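Before relying on records like the one below, remember that each one covers exactly one chain. Contacts with other chains, cofactors or solvent are not represented anywhere in the record.
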Amino acid sequence: MSDTTDFHTSPAPADVVRRQYLASAHGDLEALRNTLADDVEWTEMAGFPLAGTYRTPHGVTSAVMEQLGKHWDSWTAHDDTYIVDGENVVVLARYTATNKATAKDIDVRVAHHFIVRGGHIVRFEQFVDTAEVRDAMQA
């Protein structure tokens, strides 16, 4: 098997995105950063607690993943369906977590749109029921 067909190094858009989900689920921020382009634009949906657009691999992990870890236990994005069209990858998934302040659980459906070029994620956009997430944060 050549390196280009090995899942761990494959530049195929779905493989890059899947490695990002696996790294996130394992809390491996370095591996997650390795899936992101240096000029990545990562957009969390308006209304989501971390709404905004973040840039650079370190900017994304410090503003999003590290912040989620401060406020939620066991935050996980469970990817289940991939729709791939060239460099576009849309993933249907679920977020599960428990809010640390309220002890309320979430289990909410999400859609993520990734653009992958040259073996790295260059753009990300999140679509989620933000009200369900906010409700879990309120006592």
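The longest strand covers residues 72-85.
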